[in-house]
Design a protein that fits this description.
alpha+beta; four-stranded antiparallel beta sheet; 29% strand; globular
Length: 205
């Protein structure tokens, strides 16, 4: 089915630094649009009917034998169930290993003066509460649009993103999937170009 034949069922702009969540029904597609470019979008996925069935970075990476996500990547649970599939990607490289920023990690990495800064973990907890999820339900997340190369010595770098204004990633739900998003508020490294910006979330069927 072409884009012109699809029906938009949800179209929302997520402001900079805040969280967002929705259930994407099986067969529907979620487009995440980087409106201004160079904005990381942290993401967690859960089966809408059983939240213990959740995105597993380990299962996903082992199945595809690649630590980065792009077109064709199946986002799996520990049991091997595919929650969503990347069906289109205008950027070509998305991070699975750097995790979500938190007040604790900000303090450790950037100094105690950052302790008060809002972070992705807080967004995930606030959105998760709406669906009965708590801190124990948070797992390693996806970082859409975030550029985290593996250096020659095995360390991870966080560098300027590969995205640009209007670039998007498209995900098809294989089962009814709860999507939690933190529109990353990080200002201490270049994952957001030191200037967090809004993103657009479009669900179509």
């Amino acid at each position: 089915m072409s884009t012109l034949e699809r029906t938009v069922v949800l179209d929302e702009t997520v402001p900079a630094r805040v969280g967002w969540s929705t259930v994407v029904r099986a067969g529907d597609r979620l487009d995440i649009v980087d409106l201004h470019g160079n904005q990381a979008v942290d993401c967690l996925l859960y089966s809408a009917s059983d939240h213990t069935e959740r995105y597993s970075a380990q299962a996903t990476l082992a199945a595809q034998r690649n630590i980065f996500l792009t077109t064709g990547s199946a986002l799996r649970t520990d049991s091997g169930t595919t929650l969503m599939t990347v069906v289109a990607d205008e950027v070509g490289n998305h991070d699975t290993v750097a995790g979500a920023c938190s007040q604790e990690s900000n303090t450790l990495r950037y100094g105690h003066h950052t302790r008060h800064q809002h972070a992705c973990v807080e967004n995930f907890l606030a959105e998760g509460m709406k669906w009965g999820l708590g801190k124990r339900d948070l797992v390693s997340n996806i970082n859409w649009f975030m550029n985290v190369p593996v250096e020659a010595d095995g360390t991870l770098g966080i560098v300027d993103g590969l995205s640009a204004p209007g670039k998007k990633i498209s995900l098809r739900a294989e089962i009814d999937t709860l999507v939690l998003v933190s529109n990353c508020p990080q200002i201490n490294n270049p994952c957001n170009g030191f200037d967090p910006t809004p993103v657009r979330m479009v669900v179509s069927r």
